[in-house]
Structures are given as structure tokens and as C-alpha cells.
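Record format v2
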Amino acid sequence: MTTHEFPDADSAGVVRLDEGHHPGDGKMPAEFENPGLPPHVHRMADHDDAGAKRAERQVAGLFGLSMLGTIVAMVGYFAFSTEHRSWVPGLGHVSTTNLLLGIGIGLGLLGIGLGAVHWAKTLMPDEEVVEMRHPMRSSDEARAGFAEVMREGGEKSQLFRRPLLKLSLGGAMGLFSLPLLVQLLGSLGPLPRNNLDVTFWDGHPHEGEDGKQHRTFEHPRLVTDPEGIPIKAADVTIGSVYHVLPAGLLPNADGEGGLEHGQLEEKAKAAVLLMRLDPTEFQDTPGGKKAKEWGHDGIVAYSKICTHVGCPVGLYERTTHHLLCPCHQSTFDVTDDCKVIFGPAKRPLPQLKITVDDEGYLIAAQPFQEAVGPSFWERG
Amino acid sequence: MSTADPIDSGRAADRLRAGDSRRPAPASGGSKSLGGVAGWVDDRLGPAKGVNYLMKKVFPDHWSFMLGEIAMYSMIICLLTGTFLTFWFVPSAGHTTYDGSYIPLQGVQMSEAYASSLDISFDIKGGLLIRQMHHWAALMFIVALSAHMLRVFFTGAFRKPRELNWIIGCILSMLALVEGFAGYSLPDDLLSGTGLRAAQGFILSAPVIGSYMAYGLFGGDFPGEAIIPRLYGVHILLLPAILIGLFTAHIVMVAVQKHTQYPGPGRTNDNVVGFPVMPVYAAKAGGFFFIVFGFTALLAAFVQINSIWVYGPYDPSAVTAGSQPDWYMGFADGALRLLPGWLEFNIFGHPLSLNVAIGALFLIPIMYGAMAAYPFIEAWVTGDKREHHLLDRPRNQPTRTALGVAALTFYGVLMFAAGNDLMAIKLHMSINDITYFFRAGVFILPVLAFWATRRICLSLQRSDRNMVLHGRESGRIVRTAEGKFFEAHEPLDEYTRWKLVGYERQAPLELTGGVDAHGVADRSSRGAKLRARLSQFYFGTHVDPVTPTELAAAHHDGHAHEAIEAAGESTHAGSHLTALSPADRGESSR
């Protein structure tokens, strides 16, 4: 530490701060003493009747404001229908009843609150009161007494003399919560089985005798989400992107068919993004080659469910062919088999192998070859 | 303590009446002896004695003590408005077709939960107001309790005997996050559904049991129809019951232990200086409840929040850009955005998704665990077993304050990281660069914050010393006979001075050398070494309060005091000039 710690050390050096100085006699206390409460300063309302009267009027005025607020709220509720809108600067068109009700209730409450606080601050005693603290600890006697009561209780119940009782009670207490726990945990939901591994691309779900879902692959057509229109390969222009579902999940364009149950659950796994790239844009990597091979003429289909925590990967940047998940910004490169190039996801988006049927419509050549969505322990 | 007496005031007219004896004022309506309903109750239950005690209880006054009050009141507002909402909300994922008055969604398939949330917003008079009050109060609840927690931390209010209450506070704070998440997941709009989708992904990342947990919680495949009614039960029954129970314990403990107070003239570790409940605190605290409630109502009337009708119903294949949770979940979301993908490992053919689990499953328990453990760690390092009822000024605990600011910085980086996409859009910057910056910042910035905060605290302490030794600048320029100019300084009055010198001197613990008095190796010497190191970390650099001797020296000899100032900050206990401030840590008699 330098001695010139304070900017004014030099000038302070010649200042004699003698005033009020107590001559030292060599027996200075080691520390300063607490000087006690400073003298009390009275408020205007304490010694001026007019001031007190004024404070009283202010408090009453605030309580009056509260009553006014209540009237505003009542008017807001009864005089306007829910459809009535008013234009308010800065807010635009808002529900009149909602606004007036809020303002009225707000003023009604604030008036009471501000009035009470103002009352306390101006008219109620403002001289501080001192209350003494006592150590939290009970006295030694009380503690000994407590220990004695407990010991005596144990003694009288013969708990210590009869270990069989102690052990059996402990056992029973330990076990009784088990059935409750089993009931709760056991009945909350079904086991996952293979549900996370299969999607609607594998076919319609039907439960087999082993409890697992069995599905029969039928080369479903790729249809648009939510219109349900099959997609012709020839209609997919370069640079376009489609939200796609397997045919049969949603009602078709005529409003027919579609799953009766579990539509959202199937959709949550089967959602796919379809893009068409110029085939030369795929990278010359094993991934890029495979991507092109599993696609059809530069059209590729990838699971839309992020491999991080499962949000739909909703953003496609056409110029760079990057897919971005809006939840945590995992970025996937479509030209390199949707490899992760940025963000918290680890695995690429699974690709759906596609081809065309006799009529030129896009169909799945095979279901997803791996589980879609976020990682889970059983996922190989 | 003298009683308030206008006759004591200095006015001449008043002094003439100094000898008068005043008659007691006639009893007003409210001060009659106990009768009526109160008397009837007291005849049967006898509460008068206990209530008397409570009504006379003294609470100290400080603005920062209102933070906890705001949290408490916001929670009560949530309970009230939430009860209103239960009368109209339908906690069901069952499918329905919307036929309410909001035209853009008419005829759209949605869950009953979402449809009823729309009805609350559009077709039930005042329903939107109640819904927005509920949401605003929930946000305020968590803001206020976090600020309250920081106040408690930075002033050392968590020290003995209040460690238990600090732990209860930590649990309350953590449950409030869960309660908030459960609440905003209920309307089943697109945003809340996306939040639930991510939550399912979080749960799946739990090693070994992830998929079982997810299938248990959601009652099968995501989204299923079980999660909405289950979250509803948790949100309106289970968690509120726990919150209210813990909160009651929290408040009762404050009453039993009496509130802490800031140091100041007349305030000691053995007293509470403040105002009694009746009438001052009853009016102030009661009035404050109405203020918070009224403010919430105005906020709900003027500022729209969570406009669910804009998002549309939940659809697992749709998403909106800029999907973000409510602010208090931001830090966990930010952690998820920063954790790199390579943290997913493959062990024995199973994926171990640490890139998800660290942020989604481990962060919150670790954070709250560290917070709950802190009082015990600090108490072990200081070896301080005394009760503390006087708060610390944060600057007088430089290391604790710096640790707190470092933790806050860590939290802040994570929270800002949850807005990396919005920052990229608004600032026209690369989202990758922003994310890389935060990834580095989460490690570097807390360290910088720690260092800077500690330096600032030490500087403030030295500035306090300067003020005590030299007084305050008077603005009066004096010219000496030699023609030198200087500004005259005025000494502080004893009350102001006490605020600056009334804290304890700190010094690190010293090693005993690993052997006891008989030369036998100390078994606990390894623990002791660690403790001495930590103590050195905490108190190795410390600025001591000015002692009367120092002040006297400064007054006596304007030239010699610089040597004393230099001793003000000692970097090691061994070299400390103990003669100047021999205060023994354990024997302080503040």
C-alpha cells in the first residue's frame, strides 16, 4: 500500500481536526462505543395542529380516491359489454370493461394502501421503540428438563427394554410407505417399451401380445402438413421446403380419414421437413453422399424433431441450407446429412429415405432407421 | 428513551408550559376495555395475552425489508386470483372446437384447456384482467423473492441463528420456479406446449430411468392427455400447500427470532430498534399489501402479458421463432443453449446426454444446494458460533459480497444467453459469436466480477476510514499564512461516525503448525490447513475500522497519520499492527 492512498492525503496532512477532540491520556478504548440512539426529530404534524390537520385531510383524500376507484370499477363492469373496445393512446384498441375494471380495482386498492401508509408516517408515533433480544437457546434447565421428559417417556413405554418392539415397529414404519409408493409410481404411466423407436412412418400402431407396438410398413406417401395433400416430386422446386407428415395421420384434403386417437402423439414423432437442393450442392463427404442417395433427385426428407430436446426444427435458411432450431439454436447442415454444425445438439437429424411411386408422388422408401427426437438411455 | 412530547421542543411558547402536567386524554371509542365479540372470544380461547405480545412486537424499518413483503403479498395475490381462475379454467387436454368470440381461432381444433383459457380472456367479463394479474403477480413474486434472497445474502442475515430459515427460503425459491413453470404450461398454447415438449426432452436425458420417468409423468407418449390435469393438481394443490406451509414457518421463525436490523447508533446485537406492530406496522405493512395489490391491478390493466391467443393451440410440429420461457427459467434455458453438443457421450452403448442433463436436470439442484450450504461453509471458515442479529454492510464483508456478485454474474450470463437469438436479431450480430462470447463469459466474467467487487468493497471501506479520520469536505477553502490553499474538513458527529466504524475487525485464522501444545501431530491438521487457507482467502486482505487511538493520532498530528492509514489495509495477519486495533474477535461488545 502506498501512503498516498487518498487523493487528498496531502492537503489533509495540514488540516488540524482539533475541534471536539478529547485529549488523550494513553487509555483510549480499543474501539468506538455505540453512541446510542440519536436525538429524535419531531415531524411537522407532531407540534403543528395545522400540519396534523393537513395530514388527516390527505389521508382522507386517498381513502376517497379509493372509493372513486371502486365506482370506476363498477361502471367498467356494468356499463360495457365484453365486446366493447376503446382506443387508448399507447395501448391501441383494448377491452373497455377490462381496462376500467383494472384501473378501478387498482385505484381502489392503492387509495387504501397509500392512505394507510401516509397515516402511519404522518400521524402515528414515529419515535423508535427498543425491544430487547434474548438468546435463542433455552436455559440449561429447560434443556435438561426436555431431555429428562423424553428419557422418561422412553422408559415408561419400555421402548428401551423391549428391543423386539423397537425393531418390529421400525420395520413396519419402514415398509408401510412402500405400497403407496408402488401404487403411485407403478400406475402413473405405461412403460415406454418401443414407443420412442417407432413412428407413423412405420405404419399404423397396433398393440401386439407382447405389449410392444407393432406396425406394418406400407410406403406411406408424403403429404403436406396440415392440408394432407400428397406431394409430386416434379412439383418440388429447388429451394422450396415442405412441412410433411405420413399419409393417413391427418384427414386428407377432402377431410376424410386420419387417426381417431393419438393424432398429436404420432405427429410429435412423425413430423418431417422436405427440401429440394441442387444435387451438386451436397457435400462430397460420406454423409453428403448418403444424403443424396436417400433422397430423390436432390429432394431430401429429415425428421423435424430436434435431437437436442425435441422442439420442431422450424427455421430453414435457403441460401446456406442450414436448419436452425428456434428453442436452443442447434444448427444442422442439410448438405452434409444434417450434421450438427453449431449449438447444443449432438446427433444429426435422422433422414427419411424417400422415393417416388408409379404416379410420381413422393413416398417413404423405408421408415426411419433410428429413433427420432432427443436422446434417451435405451436408444442404441 | 424519552416519549414524544411537543412540550420539549424549542419554541418559546412551549417552554412556558414546561411545568404543566397534562391530563390523560379521554378514552376514545376504540380504547374501551375488552368486550363485545372480542370479549366473547377471549372468554373461550383467551387469546388476549398472546395477541398483546404480538401487537407490541417491534420491527426495524428499512426499505430493503420490504422486498420479502412484496414476495409475500404477491404470493397472496396469486392465491386469490388463482382461485378465481379455477372457476373457469378446464384442466383437460380433451379435444374441442373453439366457438368463442375470438374470431381468428373460431372453428379451430384445440384442447379444452386452451379453449377455456381463451374464454377467460375474451368471454368472461374481467377474466383477462384476473388472468393478467395472476401472471404479473407470479412474475413479481419471483422477482421479489430473488431480490429478498440477495438482500439476505449480502447483509449476512443468513448467519446463526437463521440458517434454518435461509434453507426454507431456498426451498421456497426453488419451488416457486417449479410452480411458475407448471402454471404457464397449463393454457396449452403453442408456446407453453413447446416448453413442455422441451421438458419431456429434459426428462428423457436422465441417465437409465429417463424414458420411464417421462412415460410416468406424461402418462405415455408425448404429449398425451395426462400432463395438463396432472400439472393442474400440482399447480393448484400440491405446490401451493407446500409453499404456504413453508412460508408460514418462514414468517413464524422471523417472529420468534425477531427481525435483524442494520447497524447504526443505538442498534446492538441485543436489541431491536423500530416500530411496534400496533399501530405503526399494522398500518404500514397492511397498507403496503394494498399498494402491491393495486399496483398489480394497474399493471394488469395496462400491460399485456402472455397473449396466448396470438400463439394458437399447441401443435407438436409447429413452433414460433424466439421461443423463450418466463424470465425465471431463463438461466436454465441459457445453460442449455451454451452447453456444447460434444457433452453427449456414449457409454456402453447408451447415450449419456450431459449436454442436456447438466442444464436441465443438475443445474437447479446444484445451484440451490450450494446456496443452502453457504451459511455452514462460511461459519466453518470463520469459526464463528455467535448469534448475529446485526446485519453487515456488504462492503464490510468484501469476500462474501464478491462471491455473491460472482454467483450473480454466473446466473446473469446464463440468463442473457437465453436471449442470444433475440440479441442476434436486434443487434444484427452473429448468433454463433454471441454464443461463443457467453460460453467464455460464463467462466471468465464471474472471476472478473469477484475481483472487481472485492476491490470496490475494500476501496469503499478505505473511503469510510478516510471519512472518519479526516471528516467530510466542508467546501470551505482556507488559505494559510504561507499562501497554501486547502479545503477545511469537518469532523463527523458520533452518530454518523458510528455507522462507519461500528463493525468487527476481521483477520484470517492462523495455522497452529499441525502440532498441539504437547508437540503431538494434530489429527485434524489437514482440515485445519484447508480452513486456514479458506480463512486467508476470506480475510487475508482486510480493512479495519478506525479506532479511537487512530482518530486521536490523526487529529493530533496531521502529518503522522499517513503511516496509520497504511496500516488500515493489512494483507496478512502476521504483519498486522495489532497495537493499533487489538480488538479481540470473540470479545466484541457491539
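Chain B touches chain A through 158 residues (CB under 8 Å).
Residues 504-585 of chain B form one domain.
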